[in-house]
Specification:
single chain, 2 helices, 4-stranded mixed sheet, binds zinc ion
Length: 107
C-alpha cells in the first residue's frame, strides 16, 4: 500500500506558502492602521513629535520597536504631510508611516 504522506519538500512548500499568505495579511493590516497610508495619516500637532511617534508604533509583523531611518518633508506637495521610513529593530522589515501636521487652533 502506497503511502499518502506528503514528502518533506512538499510540506516545506506548503509551509512557505502559508507564511507568505500570513505576511501579505499582516502587510494589509499594517496599511489599514493609522499612518499606514498617505490618505490615512497619524495626526500630530507639531513636526517635532513625529519621530517619537513613529518610534512608538510597533512593527506590523512582529510587534518589535521601529527605528526611524528617514523623515522626508518633500515626499508630498502638501507641506503638512510627512513620510517617515522606519525599520523594525527585531525583524528588519521596512515600514513607511504617514503623518499629517495639524497645529492646534489657538482660539
Ligand atoms: Zn518586526
Amino acid at each position: 500500500m502506497a503511502s499518502k504522506k506528503p514528502r518533506p519538500r512538499t510540506e516545506r512548500r506548503a509551509a512557505d506558502r502559508a507564511a507568505e499568505a500570513a505576511t501579505r495579511t499582516r502587510d494589509r493590516i499594517a496599511r489599514l492602521e493609522p499612518g499606514g497610508a498617505r490618505d490615512w495619516p497619524i495626526v500630530v500637532d507639531s513636526a517635532v513629535v513625529i519621530e517619537a511617534r513613529a518610534a512608538a508604533v510597533p512593527c506590523g509583523h512582529c510587534g518589535g520597536p521601529l527605528k526611524v531611518l528617514d523623515h522626508d518633508a518633500r515626499a508630498s506637495d502638501d507641506q503638512r504631510r510627512r513620510e517617515v521610513r522606519a525599520r523594525c529593530q527585531r525583524c528588519s522589515r521596512d515600514r513607511t508611516l504617514w503623518f499629517e501636521i495639524v497645529p492646534p487652533a489657538d482660539n
